[in-house]
Amino acid sequence: MNEGLSCSLPVLAEAVSPPPAPGRVPVECGDLPFVIRRDGVWLYRGTSINRKELVCLFAGVLRRDSDGVYWLRTPAERGRIVVEDAAFIAVELDWTGEGESQVLSFRTNIDQIVTAGPDRPIRVAYEPGGEEPTPYITVRAGEGEHPIEARINRATYYELVALAVPGNVDGQDVLGVWSRGVFFPLGDLPVDDDLDDEWEDG
């Protein structure tokens, strides 16, 4: 594996720079030794990056291409990284209003505020053959149909479910939440203590 040792990108010299201008092709660094674990921890060469400021800088140059592959990219260089699930974790929920006027805002593990709406949808995924819900919210668009998302952690999801109201999507009765005039279905989900036994810690 090419760990990009000849590239300057791991030291993030240009971390706060914008993406390359159209027509400029950044140098390929191959596979960089970064992993974003399912719990949101960033690893470099197997060691966690504990400085939030540094994680925020790396997050600022994180991109996702049309194939769903994650990259760290500066104007000069780019390299692939591994993301086990979502790039971020939504750890806190704030809301104002009610009904169709409700606005839901999430704080991520890097303290970014993301407000659900037409451009930042909430979705709930299920493992094949399983019934356990895994909710996500779009943080920003990718270069194709695959966005960069935050997985909504368990405690925050409980708060979200508490705000759920009945709705109908494609002729099916569901529970869901409103934000910025958009109804996001959460599914026909239990909201009692049995959910504790089914949910995997986030």
Description of the structure:
The chain is mostly beta strands and 202 residues long. The protein has helices at residues 52-60, 154-162, 195-198, and strands spanning 27-36, 42-44, 47-48, 62-64, 70-73, 77-83, 88-96, 103-108, 113-115, 122-126, 133-140, 148-152, 165-169, 172-179, 182-187. The strands form 3 sheets. A 6-stranded mixed sheet has the order 3-2-1-6-5-4. The protein is elongated and about 50 Å long. Mean pLDDT is 85; it is low at 1-6, 8-17 and 189-196.
Give me some keywords for this one.
single chain; 202 residues; mainly beta; duf1285 protein fold; 2 domains; 3 helices; disordered N terminus
Class computed from helices, strands and strand pairing: mainly beta
- Portion of residues in beta strands equals 35-45%
Radius of gyration over C-alpha positions, nearest whole angstrom: 18 Å
Shape field: elongated
| CATH architectural group of the largest domain | Roll
Unreliable spans: 1-6, 8-17, 189-196
Order of H and E elements:
EEEHEEEEEEEEEHEEEH
**CATH class group of the largest domain:** Mainly Beta
Instruction: Find the count of extended strands (DSSP E, 2+ residues).
Output: 15
Return the CATH topology of the largest domain: duf1285 protein fold
The fourth-level CATH homologous superfamily of the largest domain is duf1285 protein
Strand order of the largest sheet: 3-2-1-6-5-4
- What is the averaged pLDDT score? 85
Provide the number of structural domains: 2
Helix content: 10-25%
Largest sheet: 6 strands, mixed
**Number of continuous helical runs:** 3
